Task: structure prediction
Amino acid sequence: MSSLFLKKGREAPVLRGHPWIFSGAIEKVDGDAGSPSVCDVFDAQGRWLARGLYNPNSQIRARVLTWTEEPVDQSFFARRLSQAVALRAQHVGSATNAYRVVNGEGDFLPGLVVDRYADFLVCQFLTAGMDALRQEVAGALQTLLPVQGLYERSEGAVREQEQLPERAGVLAGVEPPDLVEIEENGIKFAVDLRHGQKTGFFLDQRDNRLLVRSLARGQRILNCFAYTGGFSVYAVQAQAKQVISLESSRAALELGKQTLRLNGLAVVEEEWIKADVFSFLKNCTEQFDTVILDPPSLARRRTDVEAAAGGYKFLNLHALRLLRAGGLLITFCCSQHVSSDLFQKIVFGAAVDSRRRVQVLRKLGHPVDHPVSLHHPEGEYLKGLLVRVLE
Result:
């Protein structure tokens, strides 16, 4: 175990419950300062503050796990994971068997993401400290959630920033099949856990897909960045007049059509279009009742925000131009580096430049299985707006 001593006056965020300690806040490290480990955090006077996970290779030197002097072992993870599992058991309905079990800092387990897909769990150990404790986490998960298998997909930008190699494979139990059938709000989806985006499916859009189902009947809908057609399937089930799905991946489009068939819904081949969304929107002259914009993150790092703002404005401007009077824009940003306030300003700028008068009907975000800690507002990565065009 290492000991981190903070510079004078830098203890306030820790005392307020923020889990991140940056390198610039640290005066010195005692113990094995060159290796990831569990660490104790002290103020400049040597008073104990917290216990967390240390990584000498990351700008975020430590991520706090607990503000109580307690062992960080399998029993610790069993308690924290039990709290997370209980939240989902209380709030995720019986018609859904795919949801997030652990949402990192939102569940006070920084660096850990666990998603459930029917009888499989997909785990992501995103930080060096959590990576070193993966067996303890796996053991606790197996006790709490007796599923067929735990599959690891530890990859992405955070691991890169932590200077960790990507790792994927079976963590416990059996390997998932090529496609796992899940159910969300009574709708069936076939999910590729091993190769699909994120951990296989965009679980964080579950409530927003329900919103689309409530609005879709009789509507002509354009679903941009459709991926495997989550929003599209809900809209088709709700008897939308037409649903056009745009996606750059042919494989994702094919899986979307397979999902329609899985639910006994008709497939209209010409409505599933392989296209670059930016080019399509720029050149399209058709009118729609609803446009859905759910792009991948355009700002993976803080330095990307300015360029990303231009990209988000372009998409929203051209989407607004395609809407008839009274039409709806359902637009999202999934970058934690773009605040809700900035995103709303971007959409406002797009409305001004497109010369459309609009009103915000609802602000959108994560479902209940993606909680955000009040002490860690950076965890609010998904933000969205339901916008109505008046004229």
Observations:
- The two ends are 63 Å apart (CA to CA).
- The chain has eleven helices and 20 strands.
